[in-house]
Write a structure and sequence with these properties.
mainly alpha, 62% helix
């Protein structure tokens, strides 16, 4: 009898979530890429703030910046998919999420400040790109611990596709997002909070979760759906609630970073964020690990080799 908790939601169903905040170069282009995107010139630096008067489309938050983010995600995703690299799982989910975000902001009033959230989208993406490039470029000491665990698990093919998804989500949300939010600012010029726009992103995630999981299972790892119950949205709902909880915790941790009054206090909060994200990653890795010789990635890899290009 199938369990009501799918593998992709093992963490959400098997662990008690805590919402307590933490305590006080581009990759080489493949031969198939016909166009070079000057990504480093377009994307705002990790410390560059939002400026609606800037000449840089990402610093001023144009919709065109989101288009560039998507193009860069696609450039990175394609070789991962073709090679059935286990890093493809998070790369794919992030791409589909950003594409859904782009559709949402066709409404110029979707957020109270679309341009600012576009800027956030670009800065957030750069954190992921930089971690990935540092890992694969041999600068692993510069990679945050939660990302090291995620990339190592992908390289070693040691966890299921569900595990790869969750490891990437954990590193990007629990580790990266607090620093992004604190860095770009959490209040508007009039002093009101940007939290409502932060929360509205959850609607986009709700729209994309089901279709993205189904496509990931169809193309890369059918075990994502092994224990799902036909006709229900249990998996999508559980995944969304997990992400919403992590995003809420990220906001609270960002508040702690902003509230720190000394470099020592901020360092203490930052270390707490790093440690908590790494601990979460270890738990995800353990709960989604293959157990050779009883289980391995062989079946998944064979499936992907046949179906990675499916629409």
């Amino acid at each position: 009898m199938k369990s009501r908790c799918s593998r992709v939601m093992a963490l959400a169903c098997g662990f008690v979530l805590t919402l307590s905040p933490a305590g006080p170069a581009l990759a080489p282009a493949s031969a198939e890429d016909p166009v070079f995107v000057p990504w480093a010139d377009i994307l705002p630096g990790l410390t560059m703030g939002y400026d609606p008067t800037s000449e840089n489309i990402c610093v001023r938050g144009d919709n065109a910046c989101v288009d560039e983010v998507i193009r860069e995600m696609q450039r990175r995703f394609k070789p991962l998919a073709k090679d059935c690299n286990h890093d493809v799982m998070f790369s794919f989910l992030y791409l589909r999420t950003t594409q859904e975000y782009r559709r949402a902001i066709q409404d110029p009033n979707y957020f109270s400040d679309n341009r600012f959230v576009n800027h956030e989208d670009a800065v957030f993406a750069r954190f992921y790109f930089q971690a990935y490039d540092n890992w694969h470029g041999g600068l692993r000491e510069q990679v945050p611990p939660a990302w090291r665990i995620a990339f190592s698990a992908a390289d070693n093919k040691s966890v299921s596709g569900s595990g790869n998804l969750l490891l990437g989500m954990n590193a990007h949300i629990n580790r990266d997002l607090p620093f992004v939010l604190a860095g770009i600012g959490m209040t508007k010029p009039d002093g009101t909070s940007r939290k409502p726009d932060h929360n509205k992103v959850n609607r986009i995630l709700n729209s994309v979760a089901g279709p993205a999981l189904a496509e990931a299972a169809r193309r890369f790892d059918p075990s994502i759906n092994d224990s799902s119950v036909d006709g229900t949205t249990l998996d999508e709902t559980a995944l969304l609630q997990l992400v919403v909880a992590w995003r809420e915790k990220a906001w609270r941790n960002a508040e702690l970073l902003v509230a720190a009054t000394t470099a020592e206090q901020r360092a203490q909060v930052a270390q707490g964020i790093e440690d908590a994200a790494a601990a979460e990653a270890e738990a995800i890795r353990a709960s989604n690990a293959y157990a050779p010789p009883l289980s391995s990635s062989a079946e998944r890899d064979a499936w992907c080799a046949l179906h990675w290009g499916d629409a």
